[in-house]
Backbone:
């Protein structure tokens, strides 16, 4: 990295810090612009949008949100409708904003992990070309809020580990922020608990290894965790998410003119659990979780969603490369564990019918696995930068899928391909 700067934040050299923050802002503006272009197509709710939009409008009318999921995601959709009206823009604008936040968060997170500006930028561009982020950011679906909160929770946790010149108070504030963000993620979909579990186990593993390892990186991470305080650390990772999650039900209680009570909160969550157990789902659109890994055909009813093949398969190769180093290196440990947890959860979930778009969180970590692997490889092969090759290949695949994902009209819908 230029000028030997390896920090991010107050201790970074001013030039590098300014460039990184400016890039983050520009990435956010560019992503939001791309996600908003043509977001009014289709002009009617499609796929699961119909459920979440109806629930958001019911909440605005003084009723309840969808009892199958926690309320925060639909409250955010309701906020978009309240500001921009009951139309396609109002339904989807919150998703576009949080999609841009997700892209920026991935850039910052990978920068913190690798201390490499070019590879962090590579991660952000791959996220944009991932197809999943583009489609999910342009739909009134609560999954985009889940992933945005998860990524920024990881940013806060990684800052705690990687930034050395912080006080104990600052470290506690970071882990409290991480716990809050993970709680908010769970308040969109319960799947956020998988990433939180990975963070807890990584913390335990680092503290355990630091007591017996001579690896300087592990020792440094252990010191930073210990400086935050063991009790505050696990309080913030175990109790703060519960408080943040519970607080998101307050607007729902207020809308229903009920006083906030633990008993009714528990009743609502038991209802969520029971509805997932008995939900019949759509037999035609459902697919087993293990089929998502190498899926080639698009989910036609949901903006022709299919993961960018370059990133999906290249990410699997990167994960295989990263597994060998995950015992001693934090970036590898995180991307491998996060992908595995967010995929394998579906092997044990009580939900009967699963859909391809549930692969979204795991797919985003596949994109992050590529720059993490590139960080340990020679930067050039036959005179060409590996990161540039990955970005160009992913960009071509993204453009191939774009006309269908963006619901372009004739003749642009078949500019590159026509999928029946």
Residues:
């Amino acid at each position: 990295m230029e000028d030997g700067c390896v920090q991010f934040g107050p201790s970074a050299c001013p030039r590098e810090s300014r460039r990184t923050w400016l890039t983050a802002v520009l990435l956010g503006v560019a992503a939001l612009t791309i996600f908003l272009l043509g977001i009014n197509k289709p002009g009617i709710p499609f796929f699961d949008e119909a459920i979440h939009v109806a629930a958001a409008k019911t909440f605005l009318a003084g009723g309840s949100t969808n009892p199958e999921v926690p309320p925060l995601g639909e409250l955010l959709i309701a906020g978009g409708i309240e500001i921009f009206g009951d139309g396609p823009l109002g339904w989807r604008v919150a998703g576009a904003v949080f999609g841009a936040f997700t892209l920026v968060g991935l850039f910052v997170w990978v920068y913190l992990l690798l201390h490499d500006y070019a590879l962090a930028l590579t991660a952000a561009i791959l996220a944009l070309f991932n197809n999943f982020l583009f489609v999910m950011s342009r739909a009134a679906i609560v999954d985009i809020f889940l992933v945005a909160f998860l990524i920024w929770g990881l940013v806060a946790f990684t800052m705690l580990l990687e930034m050395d010149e912080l006080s104990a108070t600052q470290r506690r504030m970071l882990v409290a922020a991480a716990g809050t963000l993970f709680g908010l993620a769970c308040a969109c979909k319960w799947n956020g608990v998988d990433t939180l579990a990975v963070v807890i186990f990584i913390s335990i593993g680092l503290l355990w290894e630091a007591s017996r390892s001579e690896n300087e990186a592990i020792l440094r991470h252990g010191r930073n965790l210990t400086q935050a305080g063991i009790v505050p650390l696990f309080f913030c990772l175990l109790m703060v998410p519960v408080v943040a999650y519970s607080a998101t039900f307050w607007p729902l209680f207020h809308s229903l003119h009920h006083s906030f009570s633990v008993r009714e909160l528990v009743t609502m969550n038991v209802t969520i659990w029971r509805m997932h157990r008995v939900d019949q789902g759509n037999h035609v659109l459902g697919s087993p979780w293990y089929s998502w890994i190498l899926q080639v055909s698009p989910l036609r009813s949901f903006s022709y969603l299919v993961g960018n093949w370059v990133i999906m398969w290249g990410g699997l190769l990167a994960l295989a490369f990263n597994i060998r180093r995950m015992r001693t290196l934090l970036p590898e440990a995180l991307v491998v564990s996060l992908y595995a947890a967010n995929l394998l959860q579906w092997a044990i979930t009580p939900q009967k019918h699963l859909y391809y778009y549930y692969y979204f969180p795991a797919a985003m970590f596949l994109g992050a696995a590529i720059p993490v692997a590139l960080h340990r490889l020679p930067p050039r092969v036959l005179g060409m930068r590996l990161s540039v090759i990955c970005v160009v290949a992913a960009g071509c695949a993204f453009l191939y899928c774009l006309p269908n994902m963006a619901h372009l009209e004739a003749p642009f819908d078949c500019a590159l391909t026509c999928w029946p």
DSSP finds 18 helices and two strands in the chain. The chain has a mean pLDDT of 90. The first strand starts at residue 380 and ends at 381.
